[in-house]
Write the structure tokens for this entry.
Amino acid sequence: MGAEADLASAPAPHLVTEVPGPRARELIERDLRVTSPSLPRAYPLVPARGSGVVLEDVDGNRFLDMNAGIAVTSTGHCHPAVVEAIRRQAGQLLHYSGSDFHLPIYGELCERLAGIVPLRGPARAFLTNSGTEAVEAALKLARYATGRQYVIAFLGAFHGRSYGSISLTASKVRYREGFGPLLPGVFHVPYGDTSEIRERLFRRLVAPREVAAVVVEPVQGEGGYVVPPEGFLRELRALCDEHGILLVADEVQSGMGRTGRMWAVEHWGVEPDILLAGKGIASGMPLGAMVARADLMTWEPGAHGSTYGGNPVACAAALATIDLVERELAANAREVGGLLLEG
């Protein structure tokens, strides 16, 4: 704890070598020999430890971390409350499958999530290892619950890189190049304008009664951190209601207090049918969640599951994270975000 506190209060940024330093260069050279070249590795950063917003590399260089492990360390690095929750749970039970057995902490987190998502009516949750897996679960549930096959997504969207999620992703061509054919039945339209759906898709390409879901990031992430035009999400909700289409809010990146509210859709008063969480949900532990209206979850036992999803240690980290976000961090995001927007 002392070393962590010392790092959190240490001057940063503070460089003691060139970047990357000698130890970092050794490790980078090894990685380039033995890891998959598909990993983007955009920066020559080799982190060794972190505390709060300070990250220290293997050569002792310190940085202010504006990356947060790709929008994951929502409570900062090694927040004491999260670390303590992980330690406590790890000392009791590292793993048992929540898919096949009744884990108290799995149910506790599902109950907590069901109580804080802005869905219409009672909700149920399915826990995964990542946001991408939550997207996959939502695709399956949407098709199963509606009996429809088509899905609408948006240009600029990022929903993951597995086969189902990459079929929704439309932020960079390199994510899709060479992997076709992708999931059939997915249509992409420009973000921020429902008229494209009404005028182009529904008149020329697909009947609305055959569309299972519209999947949308309330604020686009990798597509450029695009805040939607005022009224867009409410119009999208109305369009879905008109045609019995499920509205899926992918809050993997925009959720967990990042926009000053627990969920970005709350800024516009929109209630989706399914909400997806990931990244910052557990402060760095691998976890995702699909939370849906309870009446949609009519699928049979075995229709979907996950050996590791909802791992007890990750669930403990998530419960501690939610406490921190609700108690102080969402408000801090509102305050600091407002200052940044003012310039």
